[in-house]
């Protein structure tokens, strides 16, 4: 019988080292086919982007845009004042209404006062406005005054007439809320007839000046 010879550690190492190593096969990478548009885009050189303006330049551009237009440029159409009408011409032609005279303010005051007494806030705008208190009544008068000033400043004659009517209505509402009858205002206007404006200003009560905390009253 043949005897098997056991190899020592050194012999096993030599046998392992003698085992040949097979080289790893490198597979070729598949080439992707690009479309004609993609190939043209790929071959086209990249365009240089314009540099962004500095922060200071952008800020100066915004400031320049906010400044008013030079005097040589024409004004916008909405801000251009219309041609002035001749003296005595009506802004609303033809405009003829029965009872269109100053006494309409007395009639308006009586109407607003009757609405206040009735207190029907569901159907009467005057009653609803009066029910909201004096601050709201005074606020509405101020809003209408500003709107009338704007239209007059822009030279919109017809709009000034309309806003003046709104202003007078809300002034009458203020009178009703304060318990002032139109006759009291008419009496004060009659008292000032023939009196110089400078003299009238000097004769104002000192308490009014102290309450206003200024001597520069109109």
Protein traits:
single chain, 218 residues, mainly alpha, elongated
Radius of gyration: 46 Å
SS-derived structural category: mainly alpha
Mean pLDDT: 74
**What is the overall silhouette?**
elongated
Beta content comes to under 5%
**How many H/I helices?**
10
Number-wise, the strands total 0
Amount of helix: 40-55%
Order of helices and strands: HHHHHHHHHH
Unreliable runs:
73-82
Distance between the termini: 141 Å
Largest sheet properties: none
Please characterize this protein's 3D structure.
The chain is mostly helical. The chain has 10 helices and no strands. α4 packs across α5 (125-131), α4 (104-118) packs across α7 (157-178) and α6 (134-154) runs antiparallel to α7. It is elongated.
